[in-house]
DNA polymerase IV
Amino acid sequence: MQKIILHIDMNSYFASVEQQANPFLRGKPIGITGKRSERSIIATASIEAKKLGVKTAMSTWQAKKICPSLILIAGDPEKYSEITHRFNKLFFEFTPFVQEFSVDESFLDITEQAKDWFGAVYLAQQLRERLREECGEWITASIGIAPNKLLAKLSSDLVKPNGITLTRSEDAIARLDSVKLTDLCGIGPRMGKRLNDLGIMNFKRLREFPLEELVDEFGSYGTWLHEAAHGREAFEVNVEEEDPKSVGHSYTLPKDTFDPVLMQRYLLGMCEKVAWRMRRDGFVANAVSIYVRYGDFSGNGKQHVFKESTADGLRLFEIAWRLVDSVRDKSKPVRLLGISASHLTHTSESKPTMSIFSAGGGSAFGGKKEQKHLSVLSALDKIQSRYGSKSWTRASLLPIAFQDRASGLGYDHEL
DNA sequence: TCTGGGGTCCTAGGACCC
DNA sequence: TCTGGGGTCCTAGGACCC
């Protein structure tokens, strides 16, 4: 059956949220960066900044050079996801089939509600109006309407800001033929280059290209490419909220370093954060992976799978540091460290002896000392959820906590 | 002091089991 | 005798997304 899918894409999302919250920023070129503005990039540029040549993912320094009047603001992810939650709730007024695709994008299946393309455009207009009422006029969205997610997403990109773009089934081929291969979500720069190398420069040529050859070259991705070139896509709006597969943090150090003690401190801080997020969301992990990036931007990673699940930052750290120490090329200075916990299971599903929440625990999981450690952790979690993320820190992390505060770098060593 | 930080999925080889 | 073949897990790395 013919489906009608909306893709809603918030325009310059993080920047819009800041402009909505602070009238002083409205109409001005602003850029949202990572926690620290040095050694960071522009995560989102306001419309005004984009007009002056600032692009997403540009280093802050480059952006400042191009646009000296640019106002840099450190992003506040919690604030943004709170507003994300607000507008997604609003979408449920229109249909029960809402898929949160990212912090600033959602898919809606409005087949039933819209009946036809006219109905879809009308609903999109209504939705835009409700969004303005609910979130404020500085937070706007571009909406794509199409028979599947792939085309809806492609369409929402075409008119910004605040546009509504319709691609009916019968217009799908013409729409694809009017854009570049890499405009499609799923074809990145690498794949674009590989296609070009095969003489495929556009969707028309991709459609004509033999399916078997695409499969030979790209495997199952070849089938996807073939279908996409015909404007077809099998994936439906996925209403289920899926559990995360991994929880991680990475951090670019203020300066490249050879100092293992400094690396250990940052790594411990990140492990504690990851562990805290897992406990908060009720997960334990069975694997840890780390990533080291060097000053020359090369890097390597290593993973370790273990038998006993954990949500304890110190245990994550012990494993993570062993991995870093074994994989690290000691002749190169380290620029970034990353750690990620995966093979996640719900605390309730894991064996009680492995759960840090199991009061009293079991005999299998460590001795008295281990139990005491776990009860300390859960007490600290309570303190943190009541008084906030800066309410406690490990003594070993104090040196960088103070150092960053003093220099205004503001990396949160909340743990 | 060019190049953040949060993720997902896929591939391909080796270990190991039946 | 001449080294099959399927399945799953682990690991490293690559590509993609916002």
User: Anything to note?
Assistant: Residues 13, 43, 56, 101-105, 185-191, 287, 289, 300-305 of chain A lie near DNA strand C (CB under 10 Å from a C1'). The two ends of chain A are 52 Å apart (CA to CA). Chain A has 16 helices and 13 strands.
